[in-house]
Description:
By secondary structure, the chain is an all-alpha fold.
Amino acid sequence: MKLTTLLGNIIALSGLIAAGYYLIVTRGRTAIPANFDPALTKLFLHIKHRRRFGAALMILIALMFFVAVTWFSNVETHQMSVFWLMLLLLLLWLIVLALLDMLAIRKLRRRISEQAGHRVRNIMKDSDQIQNEK
């Protein structure tokens, strides 16, 4: 077995393990607080589903990478080139999903901080009203 094939198989196996671990560990976890706004809950669940789809896509990429490194390492025919191109397009799709996830997380954090800011302002107003009444 060539060194490049061995390294490729190790990379494919590590990607498979990471994606499988994410799918198994996060399966039952939904850390949504009870006092979440319904719009935030919807956004949070959308992010969760996108991440699970990304993990499934990572498993597919890892399996395809294993096949590509093991059997299609020398690009000699048109079919091998198409296989590698499909693999690269799936990697590009995974990168786009990661960027969308980053944007959605930023949006979720901003909305949560806005909600927290409104709560703090309301608490401050209530405490000022209580002190003014005394």
